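Quick one, probably user error.
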């Protein structure tokens, strides 16, 4: 899961997990502003799904790609988008994980990627929606999400139950957070 933003989502790579010699493995990328997921045990990839969502250029988008019980699911901006069966073994020993390009350095990402995470467990639909809602404030223009000043030594901490605000004190002053945003 993670966030991406691209000036042109024409044909580039968010991530690949490929075998060094044959190129087989997993590939996740937009093609003409539509997310596609591919898998292969050899050099020729098979398209597992194409998202029905057309992606805008120059906009932050959240994605979650997960596999549960032989089905691959894609969520965009906290909402279910598409799923497809993928029951074959995808352990692919000796693969190389590349972020922002394929293992042969082709199809490089032309934008920004942020908060990328890989997990051995798959979040629920409710968890995905909450993650998106919590994190989307970080990707708004002029969003502040770090402590105020230059000190990161927290000297005081208080939570206001009535407003849900978290007050964090450092030697540089006080930072007030609502969720992840200052």
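Nope, works fine. Designed sequence:
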């Amino acid at each position: 899961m993670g966030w991406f933003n691209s000036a042109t989502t024409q044909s580039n790579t968010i991530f690949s997990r490929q075998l060094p010699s044959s190129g087989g493995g997993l590939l996740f990328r937009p093609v003409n502003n539509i997310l596609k997921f591919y898998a292969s045990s050899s050099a020729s990839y098979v398209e597992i799904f194409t998202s029905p969502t057309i992606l805008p250029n120059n906009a932050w988008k959240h994605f979650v790609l997960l596999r549960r019980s032989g089905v691959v699911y894609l969520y965009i901006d906290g909402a279910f988008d598409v799923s497809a069966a993928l029951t074959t073994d995808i352990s692919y020993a000796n693969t190389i994980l590349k972020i922002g390009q394929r293992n042969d350095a082709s199809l490089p990402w032309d934008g920004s990627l942020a908060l990328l995470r890989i997990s051995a467990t798959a979040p629920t639909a409710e968890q995905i929606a909450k993650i998106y809602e919590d994190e989307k404030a970080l990707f708004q223009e002029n969003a502040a999400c770090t402590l105020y000043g230059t000190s990161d030594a927290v000297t005081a901490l208080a939570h206001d139950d009535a407003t849900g605000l978290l007050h964090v004190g450092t030697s540089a002053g006080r930072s007030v957070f609502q969720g992840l945003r200052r």
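The chain has one helix and 13 strands.
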